[in-house]
Amino acid sequence: MQSALLAPAARRWVFPATPDSAAVDRLCGELGLPPVLCGLLVQRGHGESAAARDFLRPHPGLVHPPLGMAGMGDAVARLCRAIGAGETILVHGDYDVDGICSTALFHRALGMMGGRPVAFVPRRLVDGYDLSDAGISAAREAGATLILTGDCGIVAHDAVDRARRAGIDVIVTDHHTPGDTLPDAAAVVNPNRRDCAYPDKGLAGVGVAYKVCCALAAALGFPEQRLHSLLDLVAVATIADLAPLKGENRVLVRWGLKVLPQTPNPGLRALLRATGLADKGEVTASQVGYVLAPRINAVGRMGEALRGVRLLLTDDTAEADEIAATLEAENRWRQTVDGQTLKEALAALERTYDPDRDRGVVLAAEGWHPGVIGIVASRVVERIHRPTVMIALTPGEDGKGSARSIHGFHLYDAMHRCAPLLTRFGGHRMAAGCSIRPEKVDEFREAFDGCAREQLTDDHLVPEVRIDLEVNLLQADAGLLRMMRHAGPFGAGNATPVFAARGVGVAGTPRTVGQNHLKLTLASGGVTLDAIGFGMAERCGEVGAGAGPLDVAFKLEENTYNGRTSLQARLVDLRLAE
Predict the structure, then answer these.
(1) Are 393 and 370 in contact (CB under 8 A)?
(2) Which residue of 138, 202, 311, 545 sits 20 to 30 Å from the alpha carbon of 490, by its own alpha carbon?
């Protein structure tokens, strides 16, 4: 049974200011759209008709010229020279979805443009993270004179120096936060460089890679439209990396999701078949994030990430199906390991966690798999709403850490402040990784909690439900869902709209379905709406007979079961009506 200490805390509902009615009416009149959608557009800063049109129908004019990114000219010049001279180029990625897709994108694009690429991704448990001696050795073995990184390398100063001394140039393309200085590479392309004026800082690693390919295509006179077939990789990795789906990211993901259902990539086709998404007319960002991406991620977390790259590079359907089946099996294993690690992490919290004392949490143990601690850290954060670092310890080696944050706490900055206690670190605001000597863990725990104490107020520690708009059940219909799709894709930075309906009743008897889910039917004004609350079975007693009217926060979605599709409210939270 869940202890009171770790039971999910009551959440604060945050209602935005009511959208300006004149702006909503004006938008309705100019665009011919329903008031609820126009209200959402006004809420999210798209209240002028031109801005609303750009948001609802993204166009190429919203994509920035790639040469506006610092370092891009140097990168393109070196790549042109390599292609012209027939040099072998080692494409070096990271072992997560962003790194795997960046590697595959670079490899396919360079091949299309006459290059000689060789793909390499480090083995997580053997080679560690980032560009290192393993990548340099792979370049030597391949006879490569140029290493092109994707989604890594921005803090690999020593490795870049060693590669240069070995006669191998390095082009770094990355999106993670740079350190105080840049690696001494042939080129460093990263929109988050301090000297970079590129207007969109939120690109994922794969987005940076795509921009490099576009700039290279222009320099070589290669038709850029031929690169559009690779936008499915951009969409998958951008969503998986939780890059903000606004600005340029949203445009690229929107286009990529249109490519995905008819993807020319045999590996992605095999993955769609293996996950049951191949017959869908469209693939949503949510399906990418919760169905496709975890399977690509699993191979990097649990085994050899290069298999994920091979899946995305093969042109053989049989090989693609075989690798996709392997990814499916590894994802099931990953889920088992996740569950056991979360159980152990929660047991550790029961022994040591004090919510009145601890603002930043560091958990460390031997036997934890380094490939799953990031996922588990996310689940711990969901439970206790504190920035959390999970560290997998192995005797005689540096511990491997993975961290996740909450709103108001910048993880990378905290890691930077704790740098004297770490052997390595990297990341960004909401997610980071580190290596640490085991004997430094206790001191790091105190320092990390100290950073959290300085930055986080009591308000930060109360989880919030952010409501976009209030509606009644009559408005929550299939037409609203259809119109809301134009405001997608939804994800980080462009969240799926959360609606609130006040004073609704419950028709029939709520029940538990699956392992831990709440199923009920909402009723108000003669209208009913099926609803499900994932992981909310323990709240069944709150909505039973005699509970009184409820306020419900929910997302509107379609549910397909046994071939039948119906409208459904996915519950975010519920409470007795105020």
Answers:
(1) no
(2) 311
